[in-house]
Input
Amino acid sequence: MQSILLPMLLSSALAAGGEARPLAVGAPVEDFTLRDHRGAERRLSDWREQRLVVVAFLGVDCPLAKLYGRRLAEIEQEYAPRGVAVIGLNANQHDTLRDIGRYARLHEVHFPLLKDSDNRIADLFGATRTPEVFLLDRDRRVRYRGRIDDQYGIGTQRARPTRRDLVEAIEELLAGKEVRVPVTAPAGCAGAR
Output
């Protein structure tokens, strides 16, 4: 009995106090409130009229987050007329609001960048990388989580992506279909902390 109980207690302790677990596909996301890099208070429900919301975890120093900042801005610009919003969240403790503002200017990011200073939202999502994206449907349930595309990774770079995972998931949901590949491994800097 004792040999069975100890592993169960250890796994419960790790799940409760250790590493964040990613939200499962289909899991609902509760409304949350954070301040953006300009100091304005923003809620997830501010985008209630949007058909889809992309939540992108970013960090200002991560080379891959730097490469993907502009790509996310392009996705936001292309899909905003179709009811898709992009919001960035920064949970890196060492990234200041000034750093986040500089990142936005440098990478021409016009979507809101929110500061998750106590990691509460990163932990809620189970975000472990920057960049890492979560695509939410109209009911604010997770329909896709993972990488933006496969162009860049740690130690890899292609001339262009062979698979645009986030865009494909957006297109499938906008067409009323299920996402064919709902989970991919995010390639980015360890963090969202």
Q: What stands out?
A: Residues 32-190 form a domain with the Glutaredoxin fold (CATH 3.40.30.10). Residues 63-79 form the longest helix (17 residues). The radius of gyration is 17 Å.
